[in-house]
Amino acid sequence: MSSQTNNNPISISSLRKYKKENKKFTCLTSYDATFTSVMNKCGVDVILVGDSLGMVIQGHDSTLPVTMDDLIYHLQSVSRSNTTSHIMADMPFMSYATDDLGLENAKKLMQNGAHSIKIEGGEWISNMAQILSDRGIPVCAHMGLTPQAINRIGGYFVQGRNTHEHEKFLNEALELEKAGAAMLLLECVPTSLSELITNELKIPVIGIGAGNATDGQIMVIHDLLGISCLDNPPKFVKDFLSETDSIEAAINKYIHDVKSGVFPAEEHSFS
């Protein structure tokens, strides 16, 4: 269950406190009111209204077609039902291509129920992180495998496997923290790299395919329930429903396993 003791949504300061106290926290994606209600009941700390909806809801082969209107529609659905979780919303592809565009779109997400927004990239998004942070918008910076850059990356590959890249990743993460990022999300990076970054940063670090050293973990809800739209789900995915007898029980097991350090195991991580 969540560490939250009242009906107010979990705040950034709560997540920072969890990190300081070495308490793991949980994150899941949600795109509608019903799943959000179940996640609240179970005690999920952070709900991400992610552009992953482009693949798991809309049937696209990437997140690139997702628009601001799409994101806002699902964000509103989640926000209406949410009572206790921190709601993070993705900034879709090219929605923060310029400073003015990013500020306007982040404003829309915050006005429609987000408590923080997530943007993908390394050091180059530092200016955007600072602009938004200075104006009261908490930012989660997403590093490692960044799906919006899939055409540049060339595929869904593990990032930062070469140890000589670790210093570059760390420096970029520190630069984002300095610029005002409130959280960092690491996707598909070796455990050794995520541990290095988590230990060096003061802000909470969330992982997906990044080992169990991060402060929090995130999964796409469909992956957790074993209904991935992919023919070959990523290594870091685990079907929790197959070990339980209901959706609620599956989410509760995920929460228990994350907070106790059981998940992700070595089999779900990269070296």
Largest sheet: 8 strands, parallel, barrel
Strand content: 5-15%
Order of helices and strands: HEHEHHEHEHEHHEHEEHH
- What is the residue-mean pLDDT, rounded to a whole number? 95
Q: What would you call the shape?
A: globular
Helical region count? 11
Could you estimate the helical fraction of the residues in percent?
A: 25-40%
CATH topology: TIM Barrel
CATH class: Alpha Beta
Radius of gyration: 17 Å
Structural class call reads alpha/beta
How many E strands?
8
Uncertain residue segments:
1-5
Strand order of the largest sheet: 1-2-3-4-5-6-7-8
**Terminal CA distance:** 30 Å
What is the name of the CATH superfamily? Answer: Phosphoenolpyruvate-binding domains
CATH arch. level architecture: Alpha-Beta Barrel
How many discrete domains?
Answer: 1
What does this structure look like?
- This protein is an alpha/beta fold.
- It has one domain (23-268): TIM Barrel.
- The chain has eleven helices and eight strands.
- Strands 1-2-3-4-5-6-7-8 form an eight-stranded parallel β-barrel, surrounded by seven helices.
- α9 (191-200) links the parallel β6 (183-187) and β7.
- Residues 1-5 have low confidence and may be disordered.
Summarize the SSE layout with pairings.
Elements: H1 12-20, E1 25-29, H2 33-42, E2 46-49, H3 53-56, H4 68-81, E3 86-90, H5 99-111, E4 116-120, H6 126-134, E5 139-144, H7 150-153, H8 166-179, E6 183-187, H9 191-200, E7 205-208, E8 216-219, H10 221-224, H11 247-259
Parallel strand pairs: 1-2, 1-8, 2-3, 3-4, 4-5, 5-6, 6-7, 7-8
Characteristics:
TIM Barrel, globular, alpha/beta
